[in-house]
Specification:
The protein is mostly helical. It has helices at 2-37, 48-63, 65-68, 91-100, 122-135, 144-147, 154-167, 169-172, 195-204, 219-234, 248-273, and strands at 75-76, 82-84, 179-180, 186-187.
């Protein structure tokens, strides 16, 4: 009877062992398959990307959290007013633009944050951008070929000029020299802006600028606009002084001011040189 029971138990034990082996083999197969198809940019917990994100988090906590919140959720000042907006979802391109142009960190809040020399190095800017990008999806820093216009054709420059005059001149004027906007704001001059930051500005819409996403403006159209702006930057002022490249308005204004000033000066000089007529003493008009 015992022999019969042991014989009956052996197939059961063998079945359990076989199932365990099958499950183990399946897990190993899945792990190898995942390792084979894992993207090249994926890194482990101690990989370069994680180290860069951690460095960005540290920099953010020291230099940005006082306005934007410890976790980039946005912050308020002591009076309950918004000190810094949430950065969750703005993407790496927005961080790269704002920090590389020195607009961030801001000295103080205001209607417009001016451009100034950057505070962080290129490596630190990349770390901050990587940290913000890790919080939520957003526009990434564009690849160099997206804004490289060194080999742009004349046709692309002309098409970019048409697109620029249609979409950008209302704020930046037709020569890209900037202009005033309501409530103390202004559109900055584009004469010293790099192609990379022009692309990122269109992609992210900093401050009051609208967002020109790829669904609104195609990447090749953005590149054409950059080619036109670069041609403006390389254009020389034939008259010597650009005067904002505003055309006859600024030229006429300066001509009027200088001309009227010269006429007033000459009139005063002539008046000072004319001798005055003196009356004889002891005679009155009634005598």
């Amino acid at each position: 009877m015992r022999d019969a029971d042991s014989v009956a138990a052996r197939p059961l034990r063998r079945g359990r062992v076989a199932r365990a082996l099958v499950i183990g083999a399946a897990l190993v197969t899945v792990g190898l398959a995942y390792a084979a198809v894992q993207p090249n940019g994926a890194a482990g917990a101690d990989g370069p990307q994680s180290q860069q994100i951690e460095e960005g988090r540290r920099l953010f906590a020291v230099g940005c959290a006082s306005c934007h919140g410890l976790h980039a959720e946005g912050g308020t000042n002591g009076e309950g007013r918004l000190a810094g907006p949430s950065l969750i979802g703005v993407g790496a391109a927005a961080v790269d633009f704002q920090v590389s142009t020195g607009r961030m960190p801001a000295v103080q809040p205001g209607a417009q944050v001016p451009q100034k020399p950057p505070v962080y190095s290129d490596q630190e800017i990349a770390a901050l951008a990587a940290y913000i990008a890790s919080l939520a999806p957003g526009p990434a820093v564009p690849a160099e070929e997206s804004y490289d216009v060194r080999n742009a054709t004349q046709e692309e420059v002309v098409r970019g000029g048409e697109l620029f005059r249609t979409n950008c001149t209302a704020c930046h004027n037709f020569a890209g020299r900037g202009g005033a906007l309501p409530n103390g704001r202004y559109a900055p001059s584009l004469m010293s802006t790099t192609p990379r930051n022009i692309y990122q500005a269109m992609l992210t819409g900093p401050q009051q600028m609208p967002v020109f996403s790829d669904s609104v403006m195609l990447p090749e159209d953005k590149r054409a606009i950059i080619a036109y702006i670069v041609s403006l930057q390389q254009q020389k002022d034939q008259g010597g002084l650009g005067l904002g490249r505003l055309g006859p308005v600024s030229e006429g204004l300066w001509g009027w001011l200088l001309g009227m000033g010269l006429l007033v000066t000459v009139a005063v000089w002539i008046g000072a040189k004319v001798p005055r007529v003196r009356r004889r003493p002891g005679r009155t008009s009634g005598q």
